[in-house]
Design goal:
InterPro entries: C1GALT1/C1GALT1_chp1, Fringe-like_glycosylTrfase. One of its GO terms (molecular function) is glycoprotein-N-acetylgalactosamine 3-beta-galactosyltransferase activity. Keywords: Glycosyltransferase, Membrane, Nucleotide-binding, Signal-anchor, Transferase, Transmembrane, Transmembrane helix. This protein is an alpha/beta fold. It has a domain at about 70-315: Spore Coat Polysaccharide Biosynthesis Protein SpsA, Chain A. Helices cover about 30% and strands about 10% of the residues. The protein contains 10 helices and 13 strands. The strands form 3 sheets. Strands 1, 2, 3, 4, 5, 7, 10 and 11 form an 8-stranded mixed beta sheet that branches. The protein has a 3-stranded mixed beta sheet with strand order 6-13-12, with no helix packed on it. A two-stranded antiparallel sheet has the order 8-9. Strand 8 (about 185) and strand 9 (about 195) form a beta hairpin. The relative contact order is 0.11. Mean pLDDT is about 80; it is low at about 15-20, about 20-45, about 50-55 and about 325-345.
Length: about 350
Amino acid sequence: PMRNCLLLLGSCAVFFCLGSIISLGLFPAWQQRNCWRPASQAYLPHVELQQPLQPGPQSVKKQPRPSGDPLWSRVRIFCWVVTSPENHASKAYHVKSTWLSRCNGYTFMSTVSDPSLPSVALDVPEGRANLWKKTTAALSYLRRSGLLAKYDFFLKADDDTYVVIDNLRSLLADADPDEPLYSGRRFRPFVRQGYMSGGAGYVLSRAAVRKFVDLGLPSRDSACSGQFISEDVNLGSCMNMLGVRVLNSLDSLGRERFHPFQPEQHLPPGGIPPGNWLRRYNYYPLREGPECCSDTSISFHYVTPRQMYVLDFLIYSLKRPSREPHCSNRNSSMAPNSTHSTADRSDETVKLRWH
């Protein structure tokens, strides 16, 4: 009996070892064929969002006025979004499908004309090294196209920037578009009065655009010559030389409204690492956690196409019940409207709930 038990145990050990060897050899190949995914990828594998674009007639899109919005005609914002041909379908379309439709007018600044967006074909080379050329060409296009007579403020954004246009209108409600003004996420180095982050987006009054194109670009002053590597520093340098005033974008509690990263990087405590460049560049002391961001925030950068739709839904479509206690006998004529949408009332600031 003892001998039989030993033989049985030996056989089990052999089969166990063989099974382990086989599984170790086959598992990587099985995983590689997507038969298994880590928990974070188990349900939705990443699929790049693409959209076939249909041709249309215009290079600049003007939006119809929404009902019940007094700020729409009083604060006329033209949005120009910097993109490139390879991003027309994968990024630009999703910007157009979400926040861009709330601008009074808009276009995409590219190097290929695409009437379905629409986009303007700027005569400049593509690539990050040519962003300053693209910016100067875009602002020159705005100046010579007659748009300064139709709009008050001009917002520059990237094709991975999400913007809450209603909150931008509120920020600009008391600003004079015929005064040279410049606003956004203010950074400290290189320029005496600071400069605005390009990724978080910046806004120029029409007077600032006119002054930049008519006086800054023809100037021989080095401040407007594109001496820096970064496009946003170059623009800030020229704005400073031209005497364009910075419009403070902080809210009444000193919180930032324009954000150079995604919400999930700004909002958690410790989300910005100790050595991150933002701590050195930010014009004001950097706040962390929910105090990092105003509840009337305007922009976030590095937003993916999927996140564009998520933010759009959470800001404009998600509703909360009335805080008043429910009373079954309440007169319906006295009941508050708990289903009103901030999307239909952009004269009111859109509150973003961090807490």
